[in-house]
Amino acid sequence: PQSVPHDHAAEHLRRVLEAFAARSPRSLFVARDLAVRWLEERPAVGIDPDVCVLEPAPPNPEQLSSLCLWKPGHRAPSFAVEVVSANHPHKDYAAIQDRYAACGAQELCVFDPLLAGPASLGGPVPLQLWRRNELGQLALVHFGSGPVFSEVLEAWLVPSDALLEVADDRAGKLRWLTGEERERAARLDLERRVAELEAPSRK
Question: What is residue 142's three-state secondary structure?
Answer without folding.
Answer: strand
